[in-house]
Amino acid sequence: MSGEEKLSYSEAIQRASSSICRFPLIPVRGIPLMNHIANNWDSIWAFRPDPSDLLIATYPKAGTTWTQEIVDLLLHNGDAEACKRAPTPARSPFLEIFSPSPIPSGLDLMKDMDPPRIIKTHLPFQLVPPGFWENKCKTIYVARNAKDNMVSYYFFDCMNLTQPEPGPWEGYMPKFMHGELSWGSWYDHVKGYWKEREKKNILYLFYEDMKENPRREVERIMRYLDLSLSDEVISRIVDLSSFEKMKENPMANYSCIPGLVFDHSISSFMRKGEVGDWTNHFTPEQSKIFDEDYEKQMKEVDIPFRSLI
């Protein structure tokens, strides 16, 4: 993608930023989605990927951008400059996103890209367009432990001025527990992909594993993509995709999004990237209530989540 195209993407966001607001949620098959997504649902559902396309799926704030960067670096043999050709959302389009004109939708961006494409989604399994499964597209799913995921999502909802007003922290936890946030229930999301992972050849990763041993997980992704890179290149990819390097990388840290859309004075898009930060925000009583509800909602599955604390 040329510099002119990169500029046009950023310019489009800048021009539309004055019309940005906290968009309401509309249920699509029971899942609350922002109105621009819901109003264009038929075109999203009808999307037909190329069999070579790769889908990266997560619940919001579970390591999406991190995984997109790792995959892009793997596909470009660890070439840092090649992976700075455009901001993350232009390199790896957001499948379902629709925003006010003239911001291009994810579908618009993909029309101008040749397969194989790296495609991002936050859609729960049941809302992923069936073409992905019919064409046997490879899918990487990343899951993050519920408490850390909720904390990260809360701060994101505070700074992302297109998401519904999150309100105070005390009221956010019930919304998370009841699946009332954008893209619905965390519990149903992680369970949906987990249950289908073997039938659909989904590489199911955990954020905590990626933090604990990033090289091991980068190599897992490499093998899943049928790639074979040298130890030197893998080491470079691990370094370039570290939280510290990505936070300083303007093509990965979402600094391309103007303040009227992402208010970085409230919270940076890449905030901490830590495991166990939830202990700084949950009171003992909140943790007890959350744990009891978690046990009920996750009792029928045995997904090996860890908090590493």
Automatic annotation (TrEMBL):
Domain of life of the source: Eukaryota
PANTHER family for the chain: SULFOTRANSFERASE SULT (PTHR11783)
Pfam families documented for this protein: Sulfotransfer_1
EC number(s) stated in the UniProt entry for this protein: 2.8.2.-
Name listed for the protein in its UniProt record: Sulfotransferase
Family indicated by similarity: Belongs to the sulfotransferase 1 family.
A GO cellular component annotation in the UniProt record: cytoplasm
